[in-house]
Amino acid sequence: TGPYSTCALFLTIGYSGVATYCKDTATPFLAEEGLTGLLANQGEAVGCYGVQVELSSEEPLALDNEGRAVITQHHFIGKDGPQKLTVINVYCPRADPDKPERKQYKLQFYQLLQCRAEAILSSGSHVIVLGDVNTSHRPIDHCDPDDVDNFEDNPGRKWLDHFLFGTAEKTENGNTEDELTDISQKSASGGKFVDSFRHFHPKCSNAFTCWSTLTGARQTNYGTRIDYILADHCLVKSAFFGVDIMPEVEGSDHCPVWAQLSCTLRSSPKCPPMCTRHMPEFTGRQQKLSRFFVKVSEKERFSKVSEESLPGSQDSGEIRENLNPVVQGNSVAKKRPTCREKDANASKAKRSNQMKTEGNAKGSLLAFFKPKQTPSIPSIGNLSPKQTKSSEDSPGSESDVRSCPSDVQTETNLSLVTEMETENQDEVEGESTSIVKSKDCKKGPCTGFWKAVLHGPPQPPLCKSHNEPCVLRTVKKAGPNLGRQFFVCACPQGHASNPQARCNFFAWVDKGK
């Protein structure tokens, strides 16, 4: 439904990885991983690598080792007859400020991407470059460009100026048409690709595709537009008839970007070898966990399970490898245990029976959650003559209890309490009530002590602008303040002119609190 009803390609980006989903009506004829060609299979690659930038022997493979590019080539019938369309799905690197080497890595990836895209375009195929480019091109594509130092001098933006054909974004910022023409001529530098979104929406502001999840910036639309569908300008003019973003679709820090083309795709009769359909994980035969821990020959790997085996049981080959029996003729001989092994097994069984008996003696699990009662045993004088006689004659008398071990004494006391439970129930209940009260009295000073030692987080102050409780944060960046805690406004990050955005309240937490 919606704009996806006529689309045949679905592109998703994972962390340092990309995937291109194709409908059966848009099965590609060729597919390739990476931009350098080092990971491609001969005979099945898209080709057209151009004159690559000067790189060392190790740098090209490093640019493709992070899984940041997948290329598929499709056939379609356009206004001018059968044509080719090559889709380059990319996830461009991010320049981490704390890692200077990543800035150089990002620029090398940009140069390699441009070299490959222009080479494929020169071969006669239309080209679409789409994905997370990780650079907002113009000030209109950024939530707060004035807050960025030297916005126009960013190397990534300069590369986009060189890669893209001149567009009219600057009219949003007050430039005249003459100024716009000069800017386009200076910045475009003969670029061969078009930002399709700006082609259809040249003056659309606050159209962002990425927001910070750490600061809740999506609530105030405080983001950037860094996800693009870039295509050669001939394809945009002849086939594109709709491009837009979908900020209402949540589930990620990015939102989908879509484009519609008026063309008829031709499907390949077979999927390229790179397709996931050919991977063992998707062959349709469910793998067993035991397969990952035993050696299996090629013959056994593709053989069927014996009809005699039960459903879900091991294959006969796996059973032989795991048990390793001694085979004599057609029968399997079982090793008889020796006398020493018999004695050892008997002793193990004895110990296990003892442990089971001890475990049963402990009672049910509910006994650990019931309050323990420690009623005192009444003196012999308070017992009836029958009870006195039985207690004197029984082996559990007072003289015998003193000479018995402590565990035997405990069992004897418990048995006496059980016998007298019906006659002295009121007395026991009264004593247990007094015991509970004494425990409650002891809780008071203990609770105060632990509260003084293990105090919780400090009470949050109220921010001055919104008069709402602040949130507690911890410094995680290396430096003198690493590990220190502070309070900031709990509202989401936004522009300074937005009253619902986070204010500039900040307060350190005293170490003593």
- The total count of strands amounts to 18
What is the overall shape?
extended
**What is the residue-mean pLDDT, rounded to a whole number?**
74
Name the assembly state: single chain
**C-alpha-based Rg, rounded:** 39 Å
Output the CATH homologous superfamily of the domain at 4-167 and 190-281.
Endonuclease/exonuclease/phosphatase
Low-confidence stretches: 1-7, 168-188, 304-335, 380-423, 431-439
Which structural category fits the helices and strands? alpha+beta
Q: Can you tell me the CATH architecture of the domain at 4-167 and 190-281?
A: 4-Layer Sandwich
CATH first level of the domain at 4-167 and 190-281:
Alpha Beta
CATH topology of the domain at 4-167 and 190-281: Deoxyribonuclease I, Chain A
Number of helices: 13
Distance between the termini: 57 Å
Task: Give the DSSP E fraction (strand runs of 2 or more residues).
Answer: 15-25%
Helix content: 25-40%
What composes the largest sheet?
A: 7 strands, mixed
Biased composition (Polar residues): 373-397
GO biological process, one term: base-excision repair
Active site: 91, 132 (proton donor/acceptor), 254 (proton acceptor)
Family: Belongs to the DNA repair enzymes AP/ExoA family.
Describe the protein.
- With 513 residues, this protein is of the alpha+beta class.
- It has a domain at 4-167 and 190-281: Endonuclease/exonuclease/phosphatase (Deoxyribonuclease I, Chain A, 4-Layer Sandwich).
- 30% of the residues lie in helices and 17% in strands.
- Strand 4 (69-78) and strand 5 form a beta hairpin.
- The longest helix has 29 residues, at 425-453.
